Amino acid sequence: MKTASEIKHVAILGAGTMGPGMAQIFAQGGRTVTMWTRSEETREKAKQTLRKSIETFAEEGLLAADKIENVYGRVTFKPTVEETVSRADFVMETIVENKDAKLQLFKELDACIGPDVILASNTSGLNVFDLVPPQRLKQMVIAHWYAPPQLIPLVEVVKSAQAPDSYADITVAFLEECGKTPVLMKKFIRGYIANRMQMCLNQEVFYLLDNDFCSPEDIDKAVKASFIPRAVVLGLCKRADFGGLDMTANNYKNKSYTLPPEVDMPKTLASHIEKGELGLKSGKGFYDYTNVDRQALLAKRDKQLFEIFKIAKKFMDDPV
Q: What's the pTM?
């Protein structure tokens, strides 16, 4: 079994939304990366996305300009799964969230990877431990990234019940060497940590909107001016420590907050969907993006994310 530092070659299966960003991170971490996707169109788009993102990192001072070609050159594409994983020490699966597609891919992988290769999945909604051939579970972990993967530091790691602890530990150490902020979960649960927190927030967001307590703009302003920036410094559990756990206990005892009732679908969300208002990609959602330059807006978002995560890293490196 190789240590984190001995992992030199990464195979990425899937080159859509997540693949190029992952490839960039591994390449910046000094590894060679081989990617695979079934679609030639996706492959060409991934190359363009990867190049542009690497250049943006250089513009933001996160990568020396003279390193652009070196990082980009570390990433290559192969036409078959077998060729892609032939030299891999670490395999990162990030194809579409479709059970049948993943079953087929894991079947292909079973025929062409060695017994010591760490097999990782980026699945967000499926329990891939149920989809992997049983004999491969002993080398299987989930490494769940967030989009855009080259910007969001978090990766949630959880191993299969059959895999030794060392596989999870090596995955965490490897991701840290590549500049990520991994968290190691004790056992698998759908949604992991961050998505479960976000779903709780979504439940409250739609309760407030459905019952006309406030507007989407009010919600966004309120959270950006209160607990979200505070959480960058304290997180959630330490925030409770600073406020006093007795105060938190009193909130439970006094029933100062009650959960909103469960609904199959929030009426505010259903209304937007019925109108075809899907957000930025359709031109309208909670906000109106009509006549907005989408690429310019995304670029502005990325630049602001760069800034906020620079600050977040500074605080995480010197925590309260």
A: 0.94
